[in-house]
Structure formats: C-alpha cells, structure tokens
Give the backbone structure.
Amino acid sequence: MKMPKVRELVEAVKALTHPAYTSRFPYQPHVPHPNFRGQPKYNPDRCLGCLACEEICPAEAIAHQDIMEKDTAKRLMIHYTDTCIFCGCCEDACIADHLGIKLSNDWELAFFDRSAAFESIEKELQLCEMCGEAIACKDHLTWIAEKLGELSYSSPTLYQSRLKGLGVVDENLLAVSRQYGRADRGKILCSRCRRATTLTTAPPPSPSATQPPGSFAEGGRG
C-alpha cells in the first residue's frame, strides 16, 4: 500500500514544480498551429471579383451584390462568418494564384450581434457601353487579357479594358450611341450587345426563295 501513496506524492510534487499543461488563455493570446483553418479573408489587391469562390462554396457562405449607381459601379463581395464551415474550398478555387481569398489564423469569431458576422470588399465593375449592364470586374477583365496575351486582341472588350487600365484610351473619343453599327464593335460590350452589333446585316433569304422551279429542293431533278 505504500507504493501508490509514494507515486501520488511524486505526482503532486511534479504538478507544483512544473508548468501547467494548459495555456493561459485568455490572459495570454493563444497562437494556433500554422495549418489551422481560421476565418477566410479577402485580399483586396489580389481578388478579381470573378465569383469562383461563391460558386464553389458548399455552405453558401459567400455572396455578392452589384451596385450600379449614377457615378459608380462596384461589386460587393461578402463572406458570412456565421455560415462558413472553414473548409478551404474558396481558397482552393481562387484563380488569382489562391491569393484572392485565403484562410487565416483568426479563430476568435464570437459576435454579440449575428448581423455583424460578415466581412466584405469592393471591386470596380465594368459596364457595357451600350446597355449599361454589368460585364465583369475590371480586375477580372485585365487578368484575362494578361493570360491570353496577344490573343486578347480578338476581343474588343478585353483589349479596350486593358488599354483603359493603362490610361491609353481617351474617354472623350468613345461616343456612347444606342444605334447598333460597326463603329460600336470597338466598344466594351456585353455578350448580348456584341451579338447585336455583329448581326447588323439582313438575314439571308430562305433556300426556297432562291431555288428555281423544278430544282432538287422542290423534289425535281433539275
């Protein structure tokens, strides 16, 4: 019966002379492991506003809102912390070298008001110069143009966006006209207006109107 008592006494002395096994949080901040999955955070300088993170999010914790006012057009990227499951799919799907949104080590995410459990950033939108609808974020168009290189010159929307970003295009030279014509094909247009400005010629006549009587189209042998 003496051995257990001696062992317990040794354990008690060790507990008094050795530091505690637990951390001193909240008196001292806790430092998580580098691989800890904390709150995802947007990088305003790298995010393109492409919505890849929103489409891949299994918990639907990412949303966007396009705000088109008189003087400004912007896309609000929103991440809801209270809905996020910290799976890392948003970071994995980010086309900007996985740097547009990235999981951080922030883990103290308690809120007294659930409506404040979100973070957001703003990205500048590019509008169609014909109808005024949103095409994409300007950073996204620039990223596509840089990826395509010289192939981007096949799309006026891409190379005009790139030239505007470089400050080469004069805004006063781009007359905003709602009349579809070949001059409008050099503008930054959405897919619908691009098609409307391309299909400016009358539709070709039907084969029955061009075939002579007795032709093969009418069942004859010509």
